[in-house]
Specification:
The protein has helices at 18-25, 34-40, 42-49, 55-66, 72-80, 87-99, 113-120, 133-136, 143-152, 167-175, 188-197; strands at 4-7, 14-16, 83-85, 102-107, 129-132, 160-164, 179-182. The protein is of the alpha/beta class. The two termini are 20 Å apart. It folds into two domains: 4-15 and 85-197, 3-Layer(aba) Sandwich (Rossmann fold), CATH 3.40.50.1000; 18-80, Orthogonal Bundle (DNA polymerase, domain 1). α1 (18-25) crosses α2 (34-40) and α3 (42-49) packs antiparallel against α4 (55-66). A five-stranded parallel beta sheet has the order 5-4-1-6-7, sandwiched between helices. 34% of the residues are buried.
Length: 204
């Protein structure tokens, strides 16, 4: 049987670390540093991912709060490349695509990260579409983002496997009828075992 798959991105397909961006800009910030830097702009980052701020407005307001002296381009460059591939999931995605399953993305993300990772990582070419929080104006675990994905891709939730690393998001997905699977990067084999139990052929 062929399934539809909805994949989360952060800590599923890509591991990420915002501290990488912090290290790149903190020497040019006069009002905050270290972990305080991220806390200072956390509400702005949430607004960016919720589609309430565009990238330029976000960078301008964040730079003002931090006392950042660089350009908008400098800020974006510092925070766009904070990812590493989760290679076991990349291999899984490749196998699922080759087997004929339909693959889609469902992610809380933003207009800084999407252009970067879709450009830099060929794994995203395997996906037939994406529902991004900043584009639909709604973030997981709000029910609206799941409903948007179901409508956007004309999904049958009973035949759609949704994979996310956050339990709250998985529960919300299940509440929308999706077949939610909680993913732990340190227990990748558990995901493979569950897919096999559903009759999906997966190579180790």
């Amino acid at each position: 049987m062929l399934y539809n798959f909805l994949f989360d991105i952060g800590n599923v397909i890509l591991k990420f670390d915002f501290r990488i961006g912090v290290q790149r800009i903190q020497d040019r910030c006069s009002k905050a540093s270290g972990e305080q830097l991220l806390r200072t702009i956390s509400d702005l980052t949430e607004q960016l991912e919720a589609g309430q701020l565009d990238v330029s407005t976000y960078v301008s307001q964040a730079s003002e709060r931090l006392g950042f002296t660089g350009s908008e381009e400098d800020f974006i460059h510092a925070f766009e490349d904070i990812f590493t591939l989760n290679e076991p999931v990349v291999e899984l995605i490749t196998q699922l695509k080759q087997a004929g399953h339909q693959l889609y993305l469902l992610s809380n993300t933003n207009g800084i990260h999407v252009p970067f990772f879709t450009r830099e990582y060929p794994v995203f070419d395997h996906f037939s579409g994406a529902t991004y929080s900043h584009e639909v104006g709604c973030m997981k675990p709000n029910a609206g983002i799941y409903e948007s994905a179901i409508l956007q891709f004309n999904l049958n939730p009973e035949h759609t496997l949704y994979i996310d690393d956050l339990e709250a998001n998985v529960i919300a997905g299940r509440d929308s009828g999706l077949q939610g699977i909680h993913y732990d990067p340190d227990q990748h084999h558990s995901l493979l075992d569950e897919l096999r139990e559903r009759g999906i052929k997966i190579n180790d």
